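Students often ask why we bother encoding 3D structure as a string. The short answer is that it lets us treat folding as translation between two languages. Here is a chain of 264 residues written in the first language.
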Amino acid sequence: MLRYEGSLWLSDGARRWGGADRVELLAQIGATGSITAAAKAVGMSYKGAWDAVEAMNNLAGEALVLRAAGGRGGGGARLTPRAERLIAAFRGIDAEHRRFVERLAALGDEATDDIHLLRRFTMRTSARNQLAGIVRTVTTGAVNDTVEITLAGGTPLLATVTRESTSSLALAPGRAVVALVKASWVMLGLPDERLRVSASNQLAGTVLRVTPGAVNTEVTVELGGGGIVTAIVTTQSASALGLVEGSEVIAIFDASSVILGVTD
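And here it is in the second language, the structure alphabet:
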């Protein structure tokens, strides 16, 4: 069963004020009258707590926390009225946010699929090719791991990533990923039994569009199982291969040319 969770952050243009962790730090300062005690309560170092407080003071354009003589637990500090209003406002907004997350969970699996799709749309990258898929297997190596991915329509794709990346991205069977491949890394070949290359990925497709240039030509290929791959090849190569709309081609790129990303 899927479980929805959400975290709330407040921002104003380019300024990012903070979320529950910083507001909780302010609340603990108000409750204890001590930076030391507040930092301990939220699991921060004393220096980290003061760095956070100073950042919030700067962003607010006025003091939220003032040093005070004494104080329970040492490192006396007190909140200004502005900080107290901020805590109250955040808690009110957070309560509404939690209710929103609960209503979202009640919409069911169909809404979940739409939300995941929207999250992919928000990802910005310089790689022209962005292919959504699901991890099928992860084969562990001494340094690098081989990740087999199933794209939409069942098209298989291989990616080689470091073991550290496998761990940090939590790559495992069933994990949704986005495979990124720069157009300049994609080679094109004609379907021929004699075609033999060492590249791991050889995806069959049909030329959808050819955009010629003086030096390079952009070729957009529709994969057999669905999905689009774009390649940048020399104009001379495009001419030699006779690439036109409707041509059957093979999009070729190595597993090491695939960058994997996740949206959560």
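Translate back mentally: The helical segments are 20-32, 35-42, 46-60, 81-105, 109-121, 163-168, 235-241. Keep this in mind for the problem set.
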